[in-house]
Specification:
The structure is a homotetramer of 258-residue chains.
Chain A: E1 3-13, H1 15-18, H2 25-31, E2 44-50, E3 53-61, H3 69-77, E4 79-87, E5 103-105, E6 108-116, H4 119-128, H5 132-135, H6 143-156, H7 165-180, E7 185-192, E8 197-204, E9 212-216, E10 219-223, E11 235-236, E12 241-245, E13 251-255
Antiparallel strand pairs in A: 1-4, 1-10, 2-3, 2-4, 5-6, 6-7, 7-8, 8-12, 9-10, 9-11, 12-13
Helix pairs in contact in A: 4-6, 6-7
């Protein structure tokens, strides 16, 4: 079911959230607490924005996060004002780098926790929704990446369109909800263009996966589950809501589908 | 551009062709001689039929064949009456296990050397030709795997249909040739159902990749390029031809497209 | 702390014990029950004897057993009269193939569960006990491999010596026990020369790790923990004991150190 | 035989030398020109110093540099005032991350091109020269790492000793030369403590491997072979010489052994 964190704020090294907290993302790869699956050992990934390039950097690895020596070193040395990190629990698709989150397209970065059941039966229909000019970006076989590419097609891929990402996500979720019918659709995801950070918590025919955030003047961190025992400082994002953290502004919440 | 070998005959260990000859497939991974690309270091794979299971076993690895310690051990100990081995030179798609040959579907095994240019532009059209009931077998993003799945759809996936594999391949190549238009289509491939071995050499708008075989009463080995200097014993398969090695019979050649 | 199985008897495919039982070794890689560590996700390995070669074949992989597609295929197709399989929970040394069990030297195969504490402090002293003519076989940095190489030096490496493996292991454990002093030494291991199978359960300054076997006329399987719920058929090997399963004979137990 | 680059100067992204030049290190992994081995596909590594940590970051990977998607992303986004990059051609030891350069110990970073023949015969003697308090840093089995650990023991590991690295290297090479006897010793290496950069070109009983540098007011880059066709700007380091590039100063050369 995957666990992830997203950060936006003053530039910090990734270790602050990926490796150092008592219940860091690496600890969650071994023992997640608020998930039906405690183990997230099917690969992991990092995505981050830096100076000099509008496109994010990414690091994907099929080994578990807990045993990758490179991860610790990168998290100590990579500094970023906006980064994503994700540990994967595969739900049927292979453990390849191309199936590891976060996914990227131009300046966009996306990661996801959940599933669109029954994916083997839904796959073709969702992939058909990806427009031709984006289709070659399809590098793996996950539902997550396919949903990202369909999301991009709701106007985000066109830089001149200035499409609102929350509005685009609403359109995506409306279409997916219709396709899901009686089956569960779980969508807890993060999206960014390098400036603003968006996170979404949504579920139909099943309880939405957990999502929390902690905000301070220096930044906001959005997480699948709290990174430490100081529970009072973690605010739960309600189900069927979008979290919007625009650069230099505080956190806003907005409803998703009515 | 890849290099491969296919064997059918008395059961032997894979080392006879994969690792032991002076110009073995592992040597070809470092220094292929009859290819525009001498280096085939972008992963490799084995496929073999054994007792007790109609479906072939496979082994895929993203490391180069020359540095994989497992490969040597497996080739010494795996014995088979019909096996494939393939070293890959990627032509644009990522080095993941799901992009490594040979590909499998039920009892079918397939591997390929060549390309369908311009793949990024052709990809969607070829994938659209894969029928719904086979589509979930699409695990990677190569042109090779997509062509295999379309080939299966020419009747091979239906076990009751008893479709002739050469006829199915003719249909596939006719369709692909039309799609390729003025661009090169290179298709040097091997196919088996665990009983019979088929190999194909075909090219349009470019010279077909090389293909040779050596036959003896104990078996036939089909190769991208000769495995040793005894050139007189290697027979070149003509371009636009199918090689048919039915179980317990000799080698036959048949034309492909007229 | 690792989990493993060893089999000797009529030739069978590895899947019988590695992947098929309800509490198979692959299931144990996710959820071991009789270990202080439930997760054994730090690589795995296979070792097996076959026809035609006195030396065993091996397969080592740094990915967890549960997500390696090759493992399932190999276990279905590799058949052997004597094989080992091991899933690793690293205790401080890196996750590399050279640190994955089983280890091999000539016709010998060895795997281990336990540790020699404090390894970072003991390492040099143990490695010093490896004789010069064996030293280059040291490929990794685990205590397990080092103990194997010292064991070989108790006469096993010399094929003409016809040294009794149980006696050699007694000598090894006596030396290690002396070196361990007040610190724990846990040694639950399997050893074979391709003919006979030996397993050992030993612990000082700590409870020895569990070890069980199930014997039938067709063979014996020795395991870290039972592979299914039919507990009555699994016999616990007592602590401080050697299990001896000579080719074509039943199981014998013998005491280790007095 | 390996290829490498080392840079010291104004902070730049690693892509300037690792991936962008016409004959970049990644190109050299496929086609090195001034080496007996053109292919350097047996893993690679990066090491770099950054703000906030005296210890360098490292990234090691067993895949070839040319097919690792992470490498390109990291080189675009990692910025450093002093970094190393290395592509490996193994000379007998396995392709594991622990055998990939650069090696690190505290604030020291080291990488090497060459060999100490006959390594299987010399190994134990060289490893015996590693002092007890450094011995646990031995993570792999290469001659390169062993030589680094012996080098550290010439005073560098003791931070209060303020040992001159060139003098320490002279001591190392004198000892190794004596041990090599009539056999070749090739040592072309880079060393840094995060402030100063040292490079060495040395060979006995064989021609020393090539070494070049290019200096400008903004920094110095030291390379196994030139990164572009502008040969006039690349200065060859003479054999049996040390290159010293102290932080904020120009390049000095000093003789090694007399």
């Amino acid at each position: 079911m995957c666990r992830w964190i997203a950060y936006s704020g003053s530039a910090i090294t990734l270790e602050h959230y990926v490796t150092q907290p008592s219940h860091s993302l690496v600890v969650q790869s071994l023992r997640a607490l608020e998930s039906t699956v405690g183990l997230n050992g099917d690969g992991f990934g990092l995505g981050w924005y830096g100076a000099g390039h509008p496109e994010p950097g990414t690091y994907h690895e099929v080994r578990p996060a807990w045993s990758d020596g490179n991860l610790k070193s990168l998290c100590r040395h990579l500094s970023s004002h906006l980064f994503f990190a994700h540990v994967r629990a595969a739900t049927g698709t292979p453990v390849t780098r191309t199936n590891c989150h976060p996914f990227t397209f131009g300046r966009w970065l996306f990661m996801h926790n959940g599933y669109l059941a029954n994916w083997p039966r839904m796959r073709r229909a969702v992939e058909t929704m990806i427009p031709d000019d984006i289709y070659n970006a399809r590098g793996g076989t996950t539902d997550s990446e396919a949903m990202f590419l369909v999301l991009l097609a709701q106007g985000l891929a066109d830089e001149r369109a200035a499409t609102d990402p929350v509005e685009a996500t609403r359109k995506l979720l409306a279409r997916l909800t219709e396709m899901a019918g009686e089956e569960p659709l779980l969508f807890t995801a993060a999206l960014s263009d390098g400036q603003d950070l968006y996170a979404f918590r949504y579920g139909v025919n099943a309880t939405a996966n957990t999502l929390y955030y902690r905000a301070s003047p220096s930044g906001v961190v959005v997480v699948s589950e709290p990174l430490d025992d100081d529970r009072a400082t973690w605010i739960e994002v309600p189900s069927n809501a979008a979290l919007i953290a625009r650069a230099g502004q505080g956190v806003q919440l907005a409803p998703l589908l009515s």
